[in-house]
Amino acid sequence: MKERIAFEKSDAAPSTAVLQRLLEANRESVLVVDAEHRVVAANRAAHFALARPGDPIILSLVSEVIRDLQLDEAFNRALDDRISSEIKIDLIESGRRRYDVFISPIELDGRLHAIGVFYDVTRVERLERVRQEFLSNISHELRTPLTSILAFVETLENGGIDDAENNLRFLGIIRRNAERMHSLIADILELSMIEAGNVSIQTKPVRLRSLVEEVCTALSSKAAERSVKLVNSVPAGVPASADPVRLEQMLTNLVDNAIKFNRPGGSVTISAVSAPEKTSISVSDTGEGIMPDHLPRVFERFYRADRGRTREIGGTGLGLAIVKHLARLHGGEVSVASEPGKGTAFTIELPVKQSK
Q1: Mean pLDDT per 10-residue interval, the chain, length 356 residues
Q2: Could you tell me whether strands 333-339 and 343-351 are parallel, antiparallel, or unpaired per DSSP bridges?
Q3: 297 and 222 assigned to the same domain
Q4: Would you put residue 268 in left (φ > 0), alpha (ψ -120 to 50) or beta?
Q5: Same domain, 180 and 242
Q6: Where are the alpha helices (DSSP H) in the chain?
Q7: Same domain assignment for residues 227 and 287
Q8: Would 9 be classed as within a structural domain?
Q9: Around Cβ 149, how many Cβ atoms within 10 Å?
Q10: pTM of the full predicted structure?
Q11: Domain endpoint, select from 84, 103, 120
């Protein structure tokens, strides 16, 4: 319920200069409107956020500055009925931004005015949507293996434990789904620590070819299961400056993905080239590729271009997001190029540490 505001007249009303200094002390956008609904004062934040190019704010009608019926009605209530209001508005002209606006009557120099404070909540609401989407994805990703675990546990409890032909298979399914949940939780914790700035890196010269060889050896069994050939094409002596553990983690994620989404009989090639200021490490596969409309989103958390196939081959949906953050933590970047039917290449660019 809106409350009526009581006013006390002041013998020493603030001058225009003092009022302007008070407005400028506020980080939020502030407009002061007179009884004719004309803007008589505004701070720099308001000029930056609310003004249209070439259109002045001062002495313009508030409806000319911001065309919004709710806002007009709120200023009317402040000026006509001396009632404060809180509203939400969306401004498309300023790049689709959302504001919580508090409007209240105020007396200046013995005359009634209204002051409007615009709190930009665009980023807050965007973060809230991201949080809700993240929780929704987490719930979904955990529910799938958990449902399978519970189903097979119930089967074993109802006599399946005595089924010599299938009981070990049921236990294997339970184990695989438990491992999937474990991997998901580990990746969530890892990504959360990176995004919170709780992960530090220690860069030093890396023997890149040897490190790539270790990654290929660790994933050789998985590649063999899918009849995928791993090719280490990194030349000996290519300079690289990175945290060895984190670089191995990035390459493992990329090579693992390339194996999963490859064709039987395909190959995954790891190559590298150096330039004076950076070293580029590429992981290329001969898989089906990624459609162009999916490419801008592949580094988002839980984003999957082919959800059906990803469910079949496993994965947490967080690997590429982790690679992106770790690359940026090194002062580098990761990119993707793909052509449907011809494969995909992910490239990590790392700055070369200059010797003094």
Answers
A1: 38 58 84 92 87 81 89 93 92 80 90 92 82 73 82 85 82 85 80 80 91 94 92 91 93 93 93 90 92 86 60 64 92 92 93 62
A2: antiparallel
A3: yes
A4: beta
A5: no
A6: 16-24, 44-50, 62-65, 69-80, 122-157, 167-195, 208-218, 220-225, 244-260, 307-313, 319-329
A7: yes
A8: no
A9: 18
A10: 0.59
A11: 120
Domain count, the chain: 3
Structural domain range at position 89: 16-120
**pLDDT per residue as tens digits for the range 74-113:** 999 999 999 999 999 988 766 678 999 999 999 888 889 9
187 and 287 co-located in one domain: no
CB 319 within 8 A of CB 255: no
Tokens standing for residue 244: 């060895």
Which token pair is 1?
């319920």
Residue 322: half-sphere exposure toward Cβ, Cα within 13 Å: 24
Tell me if 3 is assigned to some domain.
Answer: no
Whose tokens are 């002209």? That residue is 93
Residues 6 or more apart whose CB falls under 8 angstroms from that of 145 comprise 177, 178, 180, 181
